[in-house]
Amino acid sequence: MAQTAKRQQRPNPDDVRQVILDATLRLYLENGYAGTNTDEIAALSSVSKQTIYRHFADKDDLVREAIRRLIAAAEDQGAESFDALAGSDDPARDLRIFARQHLRDVIQPDIMRIRRRIIAEVDRFPDVARAWYDAAPKRGQEKLAASFARLQERGFLRMEDPMLAAEQFNWLILSGPLNRAMFDAASVTDTSRHAAYADAAVDVFLAAYGAGRS
Amino acid sequence: MAQTAKRQQRPNPDDVRQVILDATLRLYLENGYAGTNTDEIAALSSVSKQTIYRHFADKDDLVREAIRRLIAAAEDQGAESFDALAGSDDPARDLRIFARQHLRDVIQPDIMRIRRRIIAEVDRFPDVARAWYDAAPKRGQEKLAASFARLQERGFLRMEDPMLAAEQFNWLILSGPLNRAMFDAASVTDTSRHAAYADAAVDVFLAAYGAGRS
User: Which of A110, A130, A204, A209 should be substituted to probe chain B, the one whose Cβ sees the most B Cβ atoms within 10 Å?
Assistant: First the structure.
């Protein structure tokens, strides 16, 4: 009880971090990296600059962490379908579930906006772009490759290079809606063809990599 | 001979257009749509503004035409492999030739730079982005779908929806190197894995859509 009372007096450090990172992400999306500064982050998150520097080293740290957190939130939403995949007894069904969930996780207005912003600034801020690439497509594909390797051990898939197969599956699922979203921002909310698109990706994937049992 | 002499006196209108469009593309890549203006285009191409307006209606017309011409140049390079595909007697071979050529045509520094620029400006200049999308991925996929339909008639492929299959094949070929290039500009010149990537795309595609004869 004493601890609870203490918490109410002093804001939870995690909450403070979250408020600061939300402000950072919003400013970065609106103004880009060069147009984001700690004065505005402090004003928008209603904390002092000292508080910001107690939690983060510098602007670079803030922007990277804001991006990392956005990606992590999307990943958390999809974590269940990744786990279900590796241990699946019905890959044809669970690959479909995964593919549909993957589209829902990635083709989101905020994620598409930040993706566009990062691509726009790749020449000026290559480190931010590299951090995104490593965290978003690359890490997802590595997790997927690990699931495929397990499914292969269990006799459901047959492939020489699980990392390549994961990359192909990832882009078979995402590329149509993703590239449309890059060039037509309004298309993000049109999910009418997503399920059919996800299912078609699974059909192609299984034709290439399915084994007898799948 | 008289005509040749005349041409030397008065510049060929096609050459003038090309010089103006080259200048437009260069300024657009450097400064974006808002930062491109006809005064600078005139200065960079060493023609008068009157000359520019004799060839083009306005800035919008100039930028669209510059983009269209860049895409057309890439398409011309790839036209032969498209044609060869539709009439192929050995699709397994000619799909490989096509896929490798397609990567060479698209993963080029200028095309990747303009793609990034257009994505960066999609909110402010949606018409430019739409023009790119229609000309670049969409038109290519339509041509590919027509080739697949012919190969299907001839017994080499089997698919319900050639347009969907064309979209999948296009992204199976391009997505890995293309997305790497979006987030890592230097990767454009690293083509060491392109051939293997193209061949793997064909393997997956044929596993899904190959018929007895292919």
Answer: A204
Burial status of residue A63 (CB atoms within 10 A of its CB: 0-12, 13-18, 19 or more): buried
DSSP per position, A120-152: HTTTT-HHHHHHHHIIIIIHHHHHHHHHHHHHH
Beta strands in chain B (DSSP E): none
Within 13 Å of residue A181, how many CA atoms lie on the same side as its CB? 22
**Average pLDDT, stretch B49-55?**
95
Interface of B with A (CB under 8 A): 116-123, 126, 129-130, 132-133, 137, 161, 164, 167-168, 171-172, 175-176, 179-180, 182-185, 200-201, 203-205, 207-209
**What ipTM was reported for this prediction?**
0.85
- Is there a contact between A119 and B119 if contact means CB atoms under 8 Å apart? yes
Tell me the DSSP string of A78-125: HHHHHHHHHT-S-HHHHHHHHHHHHHHHHS-HHHHHHHHHHHHTTTT-
- Fold classification of B78-209 (topology level): Tetracycline Repressor; domain 2 (1.10.357)
pTM: 0.86
Our CA angle for A101, A102, A105, nearest 5°, is: 85
Q: How many CB atoms lie within 10 A of CB A202?
A: 23
Chain B residues touching residue A120 (CB < 8 angstroms): 116-117, 119-121
CATH 1.10.357.10 domain locations along chain A: 78-209
Report residue A134 as tokens.
């490593």
Q: How far is CA A60 from the centre of its chain?
A: 19
Query: Phi and psi (nearest 5°) for B195?
Result: -60, -45
- What does residue A185 show for φ and ψ, rounded to 5 degrees? -60, -35
Residues of chain B with CATH 1.10.10.60: 1-56
Domain B1-56 has CATH 1.10.10.60: yes
User: Which residue reads 């290039």 in tokens?
Assistant: B181
Contact A150, A91 (CB under 8 A): no
Q: Predicted confidence band at B74 (pLDDT cuts at 50, 70, 90)? A: confident
Q: What is the pLDDT of residues A76-125, one digit of tens each?
A: 777 777 778 999 999 999 999 999 999 998 999 988 998 998 998 898 88
Candidates A64, A122, A128, A160: best to mutate against B (most CBs of B within 10 A) is A122
